[in-house]
UniProtKB/TrEMBL annotation:
It is found in: Mitochondrion. Its main location: mitochondrion. This is Dihydrolipoyl dehydrogenase. Belongs to the class-I pyridine nucleotide-disulfide oxidoreductase family. Disulfide bonds join C85-C90. It is an enzyme of class 1 (oxidoreductase). One of its GO terms (cellular component) is oxoglutarate dehydrogenase complex. InterPro entries: Class-I_Pyr_Nuc-Dis_Oxidored, FAD/NAD-bd_sf, FAD/NAD-binding_dom, FAD/NAD-linked_Rdtase_dimer_sf, Lipoamide_DH, Pyr_nuc-diS_OxRdtase, Pyr_nucl-diS_OxRdtase_dimer, Pyr_OxRdtase_I_AS. PANTHER family: DIHYDROLIPOYL DEHYDROGENASE 1, MITOCHONDRIAL, DISULFIDE OXIDOREDUCTASE. It comes from Linum tenue. NAD(+) binds at G224, A225, G226, Y227, I228, G229, L230, E231, E247, G316.
């Protein structure tokens, strides 16, 4: 039966059309018979591809374009490659999350494992130094990849002169014009500000400032209970800050499966993070030594003043297109400032493309990378594809929360009959052995066909475990398919197998 199922899937891939359940999302056709990666010739002194922005979407697109034989130039204003993600986002935050977790473990968990330590202290400059070293090494690594793949790298701020010309004010103080047959906008996103709140990156900080605080605040208020706010709040809570999260919405991380969300919030509360939900910020006073935040219920009511040493504004991000002069060449954007593109990532202006955070879709580095690869494949005359239904989301706290596909709330609202299988890590032998067993795996599958619709994991390494589920949903696997695959013992991934068994039939270990 398994072999027959595999054969059917293999044949299916040859004609599959990727689509998104969202009618506004991009749609792509993908044929294995046409997906060869040949080489194209530039045919002139101008670039085949010019990319404005050297973040995850931009630098990946540049390398891929060069690998496809396209003469490529990448323009980056920061002077270091990797964009927000590598310089002041994903990478430094994960460095601090790991370092702060090690400190927290030394304080609270080592003794349970027979490791006795005393006078454990935080050396914040050293912790920041380790973070900065990781960032520097990775940015240099991308420059090395540019050289290896013969990508021209221009350091400066680019703006359109015409659909085929970009004027660059270089970091060195000069100006140069870069010409290209195709220009890709990959300028990413910037912090979303809130009315009446001025970010000074000292007392009132964005995620950028929260990554470089000079001392551990006694009290930290986080405005916004999304991915970034919870991760950064978690870092400083582990290091000793009293953290309060203020959120206008009734729930934290509103896109998360509601059952997982409730357990996740309880976990963070056990870590002494406080939450004020359905709460609106109406005033900020930073004239004194600290910050006074005036809040009131979102529905209206009595006001309360909260005091903190530092306030982190984490209310989302906006596409960053300032100074590009898109209007000068007639590029259309939506009300949110996102560039409107077709199925090949091309704007309404021929030869001008856009990827990543500047177009509709989740603002995630890995989504931008997929956009970049697909975009240059289309430019090279090939077929690209991105399936936005299969972009995994991860909150890198401890435990982590990772998900792919639909939540139970979404499936229920769609009217589809479904089954749910769950397995707690308290019943997983590896998790018990390492004394880190908080969390669960939850699988949602179609009741009639057993096709997996969504997978949600809360676990110490959920961000790694989720990719088996991504692959399974990509090939339209059933929960039985996962249940019948041998998983190494003892591993955390066995919890996914057991959850699949619980969805299809019955688990063994609970």
């Amino acid at each position: 039966m398994a072999m027959a199922s595999f054969a059917r899937r293999k044949a299916y891939l040859l004609t599959r059309t990727f689509s998104n359940s969202n009618p506004d999302a991009l749609r792509y056709t993908f044929s294995l018979t046409n997906f060869s990666r040949g080489f194209a010739s530039s045919g002139s002194d101008d670039n085949d591809v010019v990319i404005i922005g050297g973040g995850p979407g931009g630098y990946v697109a540049a390398i891929k374009a060069a690998q496809l034989g396209l003469k490529t130039t990448c323009i980056e204003k920061r002077g270091t490659l990797g964009g927000t993600c590598l310089n002041v986002g994903c990478i430094p935050s994960k460095a601090l999350l790991h370092s702060s977790h090690m400190f927290h473990e030394a304080q609270h968990s080592f003794a349970h494992h027979g490791v006795k330590v005393s006078n454990v202290e935080v050396d914040l400059p050293a912790m920041m130094g380790q973070k900065d070293k990781a960032v520097a090494n990775l940015t240099k690594g991308i420059e090395g990849l540019f050289k290896k793949n013969k990508v021209t790298y221009v350091k400066g701020y680019g703006k359109f002169i015409s659909p085929n010309e970009v004027s660059v004010d270089t970091i060195g103080g000069g100006n140069t014009v870069v010409k290209g047959k195709n220009i890709i906008v990959a300028t990413g996103s910037d912090v979303k500000s809130l009315p009446g709140i001025t970010i000074d990156e000292e007392k009132i900080v964005s995620s950028t400032g929260a990554l470089s605080l000079k001392q551990i605040p006694k009290k930290l208020i986080v405005i916004g209970a999304g991915y970034i706010g919870l991760e950064m709040g978690s870092v400083w809570a582990r290091l000793g800050s009293e953290v309060t999260v203020v959120e206008f919405a009734p729930d934290i991380v509103p896109t998360m499966d509601s059952e997982i969300r409730r357990q996740f919030q309880r976990s963070l509360e056990k870590q002494k993070m406080k939450f004020m939900l359905k709460t609106k910020v109406v005033g900020v006073d930073s004239s004194g030594d600290g910050v006074k935040l005036t809040v009131e219920p979102a529905a209206g009511g009595d006001q309360t003043i909260l005091e903190a040493d530092v306030v982190l504004v984490s209310a989302g991000r906006n596409p960053f297109t300032a100074g590009l002069e898109l209007d000068k060449i007639g590029v259309e954007t939506d009300k949110g400032g996102r560039i409107l593109v077709n199925e090949k990532f091309e704007s309404n202006v021929k030869g001008v493309f856009a990827i990543g955070d500047v177009i509709p879709g989740p603002m995630l580095a890995h989504k931008a990378e997929e956009d970049g690869v697909a975009c240059v494949e289309f430019i090279a005359g090939k077929h690209g594809h991105v399936n936005y239904d299969l972009v995994p989301g991860v909150v890198y706290t401890h435990p982590e929360v990772a998900s792919v596909g639909k939540t139970e709330d979404q499936v229920k609202a769609s009217g589809v009959q479904y089954r749910v299988g769950k397995f707690p890590f308290m019943a997983n032998s590896r998790a018990k052995a390492i004394d880190d067993a908080e969390g669960l795996v939850k699988i949602i599958a179609d009741k009639e066909t057993d096709k997996i619709l969504g997978v949600h994991i809360m676990a110490p390494n959920a961000g790694e475990l989720i990719h088996e589920a991504v692959l399974a949903i990509n090939y339209e696997a059933s929960s039985e398919d996962i249940a019948r695959v041998c998983h190494a013992h003892p591993t955390m991934s066995e919890a996914l197998k057991e959850a699949a068994m619980a969805t299809h039939d019955k688990p063994i270990h609970i």
